[in-house]
Design a protein that fits this description.
Layout lengths: L2 E4 L7 E4 L5 H25 L2
Antiparallel strand pairs: 1-2
């Protein structure tokens, strides 16, 4: 399986998967992105206090 990530600091990021091997990998990537977004949100919220 090949996974390519295209993106930059100034725009959206796209993740391309070239072979479908089940939803576990995509679900794992989505979970990781959601966890990272939550951590970043909490850090920003903490700095503004």
């Amino acid at each position: 399986m090949n996974i390519g990530i295209i993106g930059g600091s100034d725009g959206p990021t796209a993740i391309f998967v070239t072979r479908s091997s089940g939803g576990y990998i995509i679900a794992g990537i989505a979970l990781l992105c959601a966890a990272a977004a939550i951590v970043i949100y909490l850090l920003i919220k903490k700095r503004r206090r």
